[in-house]
Design goal:
Elements (H helix, E strand, L loop, with lengths): L1 E7 L4 H12 L6 E9 L9 H14 L7 E6 L9 E3 L6 E5 L12 H15 L8 H4 L18 H7 L4 H8 L4 H21 L12 E2 L5 E3 L5 E3 L3 H11 L14 H11 L5 H12 L5 H17 L1 H4 L4 E2 L7 E2 L4
Parallel strand pairs: 1-2, 1-3, 3-5
Antiparallel strand pairs: 4-5, 6-7, 7-8, 9-10
Helix pairs in contact: 1-3, 3-7, 8-9, 8-11, 9-10
Length: about 325
């Protein structure tokens, strides 16, 4: 399956990019791309479904998106039937996702339920003969399945905590979707489930699990649903450097490892010229500015967002003022 994501002009770039990162976090048979330029929306407080479906179809034609690819528009504006999302009966690979008001129903970052419902609509498409039948496969009473209708919107928390597809719905799905695509969907759903539980501080009792650096230099925790911790190239350079020195390094000593930091940075980044890359490392090694401290604060934030504050303590770089900085998990 393939999907192109668009954002309405009311959805901020950070939320949109976070949704896209969640869907791209695990490699597999399904692909997701983001069209980053915002789309104008009708000047209405509540959007009609026909408005949203027309925006999708226009975006599809304008961007020459293949007929077998899904197109989704994300918007924070309410829709006429107050749904989390739905597919166009006339053009069944077009759909909308409501990206607003999630804080009223579930305690987690907005991007998690938005990404979840994109996956849900994609698999629902393969469970029906025609999109008009979609409403008939939705469970009116929640059973912890992606097809739970959630008339009471707070019930959405159940299906996100299970990240499952019930046996009857699975029987429909396997007749249309091949096993690699189905397995990839389950991996992504499980990844979202785990991230939601971490965000809700419901997994703080578990022991920390090893963090792995992949061949593409991605930072992944396999035991947590292949959870990827995303960082900028400079942040990742600093983190990979500290992974090499579990005993810790003083910030004032970074200048002694400048060539090693430059080597790491050159290996993971293609941004800018060689001279610009050297300047970035020089700034990070300069004890007279706050570049390295700022990077560490950002790294801490990435782990806390992904794992919650308590579990994140094992993973980010830390140390008291004047002492060696180290990664707790490696100490």
């Amino acid at each position: 399956m393939k999907a192109s994501l668009f954002r309405g002009e009311d959805v901020n770039t950070e939320t949109f990019e976070s949704v896209l990162q969640l869907l791209q976090a695990i490699s597999g048979m399904n692909t997701f791309v983001g069209q980053r330029d915002p789309l104008p929306l009708p000047d209405k407080r509540v959007l009609l479904w026909s408005d949203l479906f027309e925006i999708c179809q226009t975006a599809r034609k304008k961007n020459d998106i293949e007929a077998d690819s899904f197109v989704f528009i994300l918007t924070e504006k309410p829709n006429e039937n107050n749904f989390f999302g739905y597919l166009d009966p006339e053009h069944p690979r077009n759909g909308f996702i409501h990206a607003g008001d999630w804080e009223r129903f579930i305690h987690c970052p907005t991007e998690l339920p938005v990404a979840y419902h994109i996956l849900a609509l994609m698999v629902q498409h393969y469970m029906v003969q025609k999109e008009g039948d979609l409403v008939h496969i939705l469970h009116q009473e929640p059973v912890g399945c992606v097809n739970d209708f959630c008339r009471n919107k707070r019930e959405v928390i159940l299906k996100m905590r299970t990240a499952d597809i019930c046996p009857s719905c699975m029987e429909r799905l396997v007749q249309k979707l091949n096993p690699p695509e189905t397995n990839h969907v389950f991996e992504l759903l499980e990844s979202l489930r785990i991230k939601m539980l971490f965000a809700q501080n419901m997994r703080q009792h578990i022991e920390p699990s090893p963090l792995v650096v992949t061949s593409e230099n991605n930072l992944v925790i396999p035991a947590y649903g292949n959870l990827e911790i995303r960082m900028t190239p400079l942040e990742k350079t600093l983190y990979l450097f500290y992974m090499r020195y579990p005993e810790g390094i003083h910030l004032t000593s970074l200048v002694e490892y400048k060539s090693e930091l430059q080597e790491i940075y050159a290996n993971i980044s293609s941004l800018g010229s060689l001279e610009e890359m050297r300047q970035s490392i020089d700034d990070m090694c300069n004890a007279l500015n706050n570049s390295s401290s700022e990077k560490m604060a950002k790294i801490k934030g990435h782990f806390e967002k992904a794992l919650g504050k308590e579990l994140a303590k094992h993973y980010y770089i830390q140390g008291k003022r004047g002492e060696r900085k180290r990664i707790g998990l490696l100490s």
